[in-house]
Write a structure and sequence with these properties.
ten-stranded antiparallel β-sheet; alpha+beta; 5 helices; two-stranded antiparallel ribbon; Lipocalin
Length: 356
């Protein structure tokens, strides 16, 4: 019996070498087992736990898996699965190359309002660092649950808050409080938690010490110091923009649970914001010398109609993380507010002229 894999060009013949007493059913079972052992194709990706089991990570002086280093998480794979790829969890290799090519051009193109988009990558492409490839598994979305790769629907209350927030953003800002936390350089749009790819500064550095882990993101240089000693979370009366994180080890995986978030309408990258009920679970597993598997689950019943999860493979790089002092010289905020005042003056002048 001959079995061929058209994609990988693998051919196996099962027959006389197994002996005459092997039944057809037995031969089929052996063939399928052999296929599963030699074929490793995206779409049948192994879990981080299974990958980690095949690799022995270095250890810290206190015996924990060593996750330290600078990890890059830039990718053109979107958080949500594009509508045109509905029902497709994975891309073929050729499709992935075409998708990445199109994504780089589309995201970095910079047409002015009213102009016909020519898809010409502009001069300021230099400033972006969105990545140039899809994730290694060739998934069509970072979201892996729900199975459709899309964010679950918002609750009615969250839907109203999101609408109100967008209306507020689309009118002239009276003060900086009318602009988003990202524009005000208070939080980074990819720094998390959770960590989600965005436009640039897509690096995170992990540090470890006895009883602690530190998650340091380049965007707005936010550092989360995560106790690993089993201490309880802060009192529910204490709320923080990045929440209150506590960690533990499950085998080779660092599990970080974060609660005590401050409710926000403009939570980085997620329409609908978050409520004070958010419970975030992150998992960091080193599955190779240069690969860190990062996954997270968002559970916020006041915002989403169900929990959702995403996975992002990170790559170790031999580079430094630099300070991103966004708030120092935040001319964008000054210009936004100055522009709003000019619009108000123009509107007042037009109204005065029209009343004559």
């Amino acid at each position: 019996m001959e079995i061929q894999d058209k994609n990988g060009g693998i051919t196996m013949t099962i027959g006389t070498t197994l002996g005459r007493s092997v039944t057809i059913a037995g031969r089929l079972a052996v063939a399928l087992a052999l296929l599963s052992s030699v074929l490793s194709t995206p779409g049948q990706a192994q879990t981080a736990t299974e990958e980690a089991a095949r690799w022995t990570p270095p250890r810290t002086p206190d015996g924990q898996p060593d996750l330290q280093g600078v990890w890059k998480f830039a990718t053109v794979t979107p958080l949500e699965r594009p509508e045109e790829l509905a029902g497709r969890a994975f891309l073929t290799e050729a499709e992935a190359e075409a998708f990445a090519r199109e994504a780089v051009t589309r995201r970095n193109a910079d047409p002015r309002p009213g102009e016909v988009e020519t898809r010409v990558v502009p001069y300021n492409d230099f400033w972006w660092d969105r990545g140039t490839d899809v994730v290694e598994t060739r998934r069509t979305s970072l979201i892996v649950d729900p199975p459709d790769g899309r964010l679950p629907p918002l609750t009615p209350a969250a839907e109203k808050k999101a609408t109100d927030f967008e209306e507020r953003r689309n009118r002239p800002a009276t003060g900086p409080e009318d602009r988003s936390l990202q524009e005000r350089c208070i939080v980074g749009f990819n720094a998390g938690p959770p960590i989600i790819p965005a436009a640039y500064n897509q690096q995170v550095q992990l540090f470890q010490g006895p009883g602690y882990a530190v998650i340091f993101t380049e965007m707005v240089h936010n550092a989360r110091i995560v106790p690993l000693d089993g201490r309880p979370h802060l009192s529910q009366g204490v709320r923080q923009l990045a929440g209150d994180s506590r960690g533990r080890w499950e085998g080779q995986t660092l599990v970080v649970e974060t609660t005590n978030f401050r409710p926000m309408l403009d939570w980085p990258r997620i329409t609908g914001g978050i409520s004070d009920q958010l419970h975030l679970t992150e998992r960091f597993t080193r599955v190779g010398a240069d690969v860190l598997h990062y996954e997270f689950t968002v559970d916020d019943a006041a915002t989403f109609t169900r929990s959702w999860s995403a996975e992002i493979p990170m790559t170790r790089i031999d580079e430094k993380i630099y300070e991103y002092a966004c708030h120092e010289g935040n001319y964008g905020m000054t210009n936004l507010l100055a522009g709003a005042r000019v619009e108000e003056q123009a509107a007042a002048a037009a109204a005065k002229t029209g009343s004559k």
